[in-house]
Structures are given as C-alpha cells and as structure tokens.
Amino acid sequence: SPLNINIPSCSVNIYGYPFINPLPFKTASYSSKLEALNEPVSTKTTDEDKNGKESTVSPNSLSPGKAPPREPLSAVAMTGFGTFVGMCSLIAVDMSFCTNTGKEVVVLIAPMAASAALIFGAPVAPVSQPRNVIGGHFISATFGALTYKLICAYPLLKPAGSAIAATGSVVLMMLAGCFHPPSAATGLLGVLGPDWVKESGLMYGVQAATGASVMVVSGLVINNLLQGKKYPTYW
C-alpha cells in the first residue's frame, strides 16, 4: 500500500518518501489522520450527473482542475467599453491638471491601465475594491518616492532600489489590508520612472491616489449602470 507505518522505528513511508516522526507516542494518531486525508472522495461532475456515475478524486491530487469557460462576447464588449471610458476619463483629468500646473504628466501612469482591467474585468475581486485600488496606489507611490530619496541617493545602494521599492510596496499593501497587484509597478515607477515622477517627491503618492480615484469613480458608473454588476462589494 502507498502508506506504511512502522511504529517501533517511528518511521512513516508515504508514497515512497520517508518521514521520521519526532513524537513516537503520537504515531498512531498521525497515521489515522494521514489515512483519512488520502482516502478518495466521491464526487460528481456536471456530465456525470446525467448518467448517475460517480468518480473518485483524491483531495491531495496535484493535477489541475478544468479551466472556467470563456466570457460571453457581451461581457467582453462591456469590459472593453468600461476600460476605454475609464482611461479616457483619466486622460481628461490629467490634461486638465497639466494645463493648470504646466507639468507634462500628473495622474496618468501606466499601472492605471492594469487597475482598469481589474475594475472592469473582475469587479467583485477583493483586489478590485476601492480601498485596495486607491490605498494600494497611494502606499506604493509614497514608498517608491521615499525609496528614491533615501536609498537611491547612495551609489552603492542604487542598484537595489528597484527591488526594495517593489518588495516594500507589496509588503506594506498586505499589512494595510489593501493589496492591489498593479500598485507594485506604481512603487517601482518611483525609482525607475521619468523625471516628473522623481521631481514630484512625496506628492507622487497623492497624484497616484488621485488617478486611482478617477478610475474607481468610472468603475462605479460603468459597472453599476451599464453592466448591471454590483461595484464595489465593500468599501
């Protein structure tokens, strides 16, 4: 059998891999748990329900499941439309700020396109919610700006600035409970971005949060009014 227990020697052989039990007096309880975990579970798939047939699947199986079906064309079209409207809104706000401040770019940064894909393509996902989008971009942009000022100022540490900015952004977002994957690139831009980003200093965080807010407002309008989806699921 795939599971062999040798109590005197306190060794366990699981599918050919030896495992030494550090607590001999608990071997029996461990073996019962292992047997329960490896016991096949009876399941039914959609096609098998029609024929009344059952299949057994091991809960520890490493084989991947079946991919979900492709989105209908109507949903794809609405997602594309929402992304287009969101980006156009962001461009309009950016142009308005640029006219008043004289700067080339203020709130339009590349990671906003990835945020738009999540807001309109997966509006119910936790990473797409307003606190994640706005908070994630603000935290990452601020940390990226600080990394550039404090770390990249030293020639010996400058090569590690990119890794520090990206890693710190991810960790801080998770600690703050507002994890938003595209925002990691926002933090990286604080170190590798164009001159206007580096010249903005800590204001880069405010600018990124402003752009994220515009994208969230666009998501509120498009998802709820046109797509019939509930957005956000929480604040």
Helices, strands, pairings?
Layout (H helix, E strand, L loop, with lengths): L2 E4 L4 E4 L2 E4 L6 H11 L3 E3 L2 H6 L3 E3 L15 H29 L9 H11 L8 H21 L10 H16 L6 H10 L2 H6 L2 H24 L9
Pfam families: TM_HPP
Keywords: Membrane, Transmembrane, Transmembrane helix
InterPro entries: HPP, TM_HPP
Summarize the structure.
The chain crosses the membrane at residues 73-93, 105-127, 133-151, 163-182, 202-226. Helices cover 57% and strands 8% of the residues.
Description:
With about 240 residues, this protein is mainly alpha-helical. Helix content is about 55%, strand content about 10%. The protein has 9 helices and 5 strands. It has a 3-stranded antiparallel beta sheet, with helices on one face. A hairpin with a 2-residue loop joins strand 2 and strand 3. About 30% of the residues are buried. Residues about 5-10, about 20-30 and about 45-50 have low confidence and may be disordered.
Helix content: 55-70%
Tell me, what's the shape? globular
Distance between the termini: 52 Å
Number of helices: 9
